[in-house]
Amino acid sequence: MLENKTYIETFCTIQNNEITLNGETIFKSDSDLFADFSKKAYQNFDINYPKFFKMDNLSKLAFLAAELLLKNEIDESKENDIALVFANKSSSLDTDVKYQNSISDKENYFPSPAVFVYTLPNICIGEISIKHQLKSENSFFIFDAFNSEFMTNYAEVLLHTKKAEKVLCGWVEYYNEEYKAFLYLVANEGKTEHNKQIIENLYNK
Amino acid sequence: MVKEVFITETNCITPIGFDVATNIQNIESGISGIQLHQNAMLNKPFYASTINNEELNLAFAKISPSENFTRLEKMMILALQPIVENSKLDLNNKVGFLLSTTKGNITALANPSEESFQSAHLHQLAKNIANFFEFKTEPIVVSNACVSGILAVSVAKRLIQSEMFDSIFVVAGDEVSEFVLSGFNSFQAMSDLPCKPYSKNRTGVSLGEATAAVLVSSSKENAKIKIIGDGAINDANHISGPSRTGEGLFRSIESALAEAKINANQIDYISAHGTATPFNDEMEAIAFNRLELENVPVNSLKGYYGHTLGASGLLETVIGIQSVLESKLFVSLGFDEIGVSQPINIIKENQDKNSNYFLKTASGFGGCNTAVLFEKVK
């Protein structure tokens, strides 16, 4: 069934205070902390979406990368059938640890629903779905390291079985200031072939 | 030609039984695992469905002398062990391993050591289980809030269709923990009585813990049921509440129906999510009505097990498959008077009924939904 080729339309990487789009640097900052870097990036790209500041770091990271790939892709006048398939290593542990700290000390016990909701890795998918009104296939996976074989197979089967017209997929990892986002848009047409080796190369760039 | 995909083995470890037959016996007798607890996990008494530690350790000691596994790992290994054994599969590179959980070993975070922190990683949990069974392929973890367990069935089917694997062992599990109890309590989402899905006086969830396991295979031999369609579509509406119109669930079921090439009116039985929160149950009733499914017999199994998070979708699939195999429908425990604005056909007494098409659904935080359609094997 997998005879039809698929293609990578665009890709975006965010790491070390730098954002690259299709291999070219589009934003850099000398910020010390992700909170500061992500705010500067938000301002630089004129993203007008105040909910951004309520998100946890994993959601901010995924949201920024998705924003840069989808802002010219989404046609607001119609339904956009773009699946979201993300993976990482640390799940939502960055927020899990913060939430755990709010319940560990019984003298200082203040569990908050606004923090608890982000103790699920797929919340970042929800945030992107809401922003771009993507009523589409979505799922979040956890691996020890970026698994190009799985990602390629899963994106392809979604396209081949017509569960989605395009798939936005990739890696969104955040734990305690260590982060990396590598997202790419897979479609039935394009120039760059979508396969395991090319994905691997782009991830490692 | 897209491959046909089947479920050939099932098992579950729950507070009301350590195998499928015992679970079914207890469900038929109306026995629930939900009890009142008062302990250090929450600053007030709470209802939850939990597994007895002594029984768990006793059962685990029969299959392994190792002391190196957490509670959740023991529950997962116990769920998988008879399936792996019965399958007699050569565990080669065409045999996948998929683990579904929302919080895994989250209790490890209460211990500040670095070693304990590492064990809170979900891929570490999956690796510990994979090593026990000596699976050869890289474990895949699906962690997509409360749809994880049923989404795992959908993912397994798709990976077999992609020809990455011929068969996949799927295990799903979550524990009742201080972390999750305090979080649901902070949302004021906990019921002050054992949960009452779809009832007028429902006030929220009772949490539960369990593991379930299945073998998903392209081979029809020993097939218990066929997976004929699926969908997992986001509401794109709110991160901590369902869409008022049930949009994502509606579309997930539509997607599953389209793939299966059957009509909604052919569905014989729905095992729904039914967490007993006011918003969830109402949303499901609306989505089912939009698809004209209001007369199809429906139950929520949360009255027996509580909400077992990442385990629930797979556990409820395992019980649903048994309903189809035994031509029975089980009471939606905890239901009294209809408490949703649209009519739905809640199962009020155990009954004999032949079902050809069975639908399993779930919805969760992040706006996620999943629907999987199954067909009785002839």
List the helices and strands and how they pair.
The complex is a heterodimer of chains A (205) and B (378).
Chain A: E1 7-15, E2 18-21, E3 24-28, H1 34-44, H2 57-70, E4 82-88, H3 93-104, H4 113-116, H5 123-132, E5 138-142, H6 148-160, E6 166-175, E7 178-187, E8 192-193, H7 196-204
Parallel strand pairs in A: 4-5, 4-6
Antiparallel strand pairs in A: 1-2, 1-7, 1-8, 2-3, 6-7
Helix pairs in contact in A: 1-2, 2-5, 6-7
Chain B: E1 5-13, H1 20-28, E2 34-37, E3 46-49, H2 53-61, H3 71-87, E4 95-100, H4 114-119, H5 122-133, E5 140-142, H6 148-161, E6 167-174, H7 178-186, E7 207-208, E8 210-217, E9 225-231, H8 247-260, E10 269-271, H9 278-290, E11 297-299, H10 302-305, H11 312-325, E12 328-329, E13 345-346, E14 351-352, E15 357-364, E16 368-376
Parallel strand pairs in B: 3-7, 4-5, 4-6, 10-11, 10-15, 11-13
Antiparallel strand pairs in B: 1-8, 1-9, 2-3, 6-8, 9-16, 12-14, 15-16
Helix pairs in contact in B: 2-3, 3-5, 6-11
Organism (chain B): Flavobacterium swingsii
Keywords (chain B): Transferase
Domain Ketosynthase family 3 (KS3) (chain B): 2-376
